[in-house]
Amino acid sequence: MLTTELSEAEVSGLRANKERLQDWIHHSCQWGSGVRWGDQPTETGMARLALSQEDKQVRDWFVETTKSLGCHVTVDSMGNIFAVRPGRRADVPATFIGSHLDTQPTGGRYDGILGVCAGIEMLKVLEERGIETEGGVGVVNWTNEEGARFPKSMISAGVWAESIPLETAHSLLEVPTVASLPSAASAPESMKSALEKINYLGTIPCSYKSSPMAAHFELHIEQGPHLVTAGQHVGVVTGVQAYRWYRINVTGRDCHTGSTAFQHRADAMYASARMMVRAREVADKHSCLASVGIVEVKPGSVNTVPGFVSFSFDIRGPEIEDVNVVDTELRKEFDAIAAEEGKGIAKPCRVEWQLDFETPATKFDPGCIDCVTASAKALVADRPDPESLYRTIRSGAGHDSVFTNKRVPTSMVFVPCKDGVSHHPEEFSSAEDCVNGASVILQAVVRFDRKRFQ
Amino acid sequence: MLTTELSEAEVSGLRANKERLQDWIHHSCQWGSGVRWGDQPTETGMARLALSQEDKQVRDWFVETTKSLGCHVTVDSMGNIFAVRPGRRADVPATFIGSHLDTQPTGGRYDGILGVCAGIEMLKVLEERGIETEGGVGVVNWTNEEGARFPKSMISAGVWAESIPLETAHSLLEVPTVASLPSAASAPESMKSALEKINYLGTIPCSYKSSPMAAHFELHIEQGPHLVTAGQHVGVVTGVQAYRWYRINVTGRDCHTGSTAFQHRADAMYASARMMVRAREVADKHSCLASVGIVEVKPGSVNTVPGFVSFSFDIRGPEIEDVNVVDTELRKEFDAIAAEEGKGIAKPCRVEWQLDFETPATKFDPGCIDCVTASAKALVADRPDPESLYRTIRSGAGHDSVFTNKRVPTSMVFVPCKDGVSHHPEEFSSAEDCVNGASVILQAVVRFDRKRFQ
Fold first, then answer.
1. What is the ipTM of this complex?
2. Min CA distance, B251 vs chain A (Å)?
3. Among A277, A364, B172, B281, which one has the highest count of C-beta atoms within 10 angstroms of its own C-beta?
């Protein structure tokens, strides 16, 4: 049956299969299982860094599985994998569900993975129900969304959107401090070389022109506490907050810890510690977030006061203007802290800011948001007080959808996760919450497909 | 001529050779030259980590040079090298000048190196002047004094003094963060294996019983600003301040930087930064020092709030009681900071202290101090206002002499260094200051030898 031939009630009745979705998730998590936190077989975190051997294994499974569900699979020059189930019309781009299979070094089983598995589950439901779509439908696995191994998050969706040059992405080197890749310290690998090594450097240009989409939908755990605290089942995501990533370098002077009085020091670590403390206070004042995730200290000896510290710095806020306010205020504050440390020897610390990445606030497509809203309503329609069970929400984290939104209609679905915790081995979303999200996104794709050809 | 046959005036007239001492220093610095800071050939720092290939090369030179000056050379099971020039009496232990040839990763040309080279210069002066000592005299090069590569400073003098078990030292692993040894991250090497690799695992047990000494004298740059600021030539070192080295581990919870409000975080880096800031304030209040040299942050990803931070912590004070006061106060403060961070999610950070090393305040031997004092007086006797040109001083830094002092009479000589800076490539002591120190220690050894057999 064609999607356009379904009744509204039939669309609203479409559901993903709860047990099967769990199977897709946990089967795929056999590659790159991380820290164990419980007794059950699935109670471990994930450590599947982008383009690692484990990532290759799960990619191979993704290709094989989507092919077995009738998809045509292509790989582009960033290793993005597009699996398309043809529709009735061959001349139009497919509607995609997309997310990522890479994880943080101490990540969990849901961030990204749930989104890709919901895409596979959509393919399975359509097959099972004998539904043919008007345009094709597809699932995309984006490369290195996390930015954990190669330090630009969502980089491959960014290249696809032609927002990031291919050359920049190909030459990006892995972070040497990622614990699970110890060899990175001696010879950090480039993305291109890593793609080649696992045989996922595709021949198709990475671009929305070569791999076009009608729309991009993404299901994701909230990674925050709002839904779970309010007992809500679904978040209809209207956009993503703005953020900037920096590298902050603080230069002082090495000296001996035992024989150098405080007033004779230009201690880059002490100055950095003061900056980190102040950063939270200033960000909080402006309802923004500021976070330090990576810290490198040189020379790195117990009895030498560090002369150099470099740290990553992540500022987020509702709009890019809010981020700018924090940026401006902290530049002054950091300068003042640096000037103070080392003034006793007339060699004050110096601080420099290097902007690595920025994205303004993202507003998702109203048409896609409508499809998600209608599907969320349909999901909870027969429950008591249905309107209280879903809400609109803005994402704190960036997602591949931020980049797809630059080129094609995009929106997202959030489901609750335990304690709002993510990027942690104990990240968890119940089977019920997972399948709720998968049912919503399945319906959203069908609704979008119907709307395109009305 | 025998030392006991010299007149007091002849002893007071003994001088090291300024140019030759410079030659010993800079010749030895060809192995492991570090960061260049000036145009002159000798204007570089040093990066000669203990038991590296560069350390092997300078050791080979040390052995060859002392042998050519008539010494019998032995190597013990910690790679300490003892070069002894026999005296008239074969049945008594030799009087030693000792220090170390290893450096910090961003160290200079004087810390340790000046002391060993002053020992070689002593051998040369005695040969040149045809002086025979009553007991033997020797030069010792101690292994891994810096504690930069293997994170226990003065460890090999410690084993010699039987204060540190050989097994502990042999199994000590190198620090993976030392920049100049990138391979250390993947497979950190043990001291024993490193000793074997450069062929300096000697067969003689490392002990004051197997390699006995009559006394140990050490010449060192001050590594602080007191002498240089006061325009004084020589410091007669009466002892060393107390210190403790810790590893502080702060455990919070990994979470996403974009979607986790501050009140939902247990940010181990933020808590650590607050501790580092507070540590200086508390130490300063008690006239102590507190320093952080090594910082490790996990998982080390731009967009994950760190759930674990481990940092080295060095507290120093005039007496161990002062260090204890700071320790006690900071344990309370750190606990309070940890309890604050994460209380919003009822998962406060935890902090644990691991004591890696401690040494109480050291008081050097009055007899040795007398020998140094008399020699310093003799050096400046013919200058205007001679009493203003030397002083007694306490060392802020630890030295091998801290351990030799536990078993044999010991004292030290300090000379000024530029700006009081050490553990930095630009560490510098003028040729005049170097030779002043070498002349004082030469005389001190001769005076000690005469006193022994009076």
1. 0.82
2. 13
3. A364
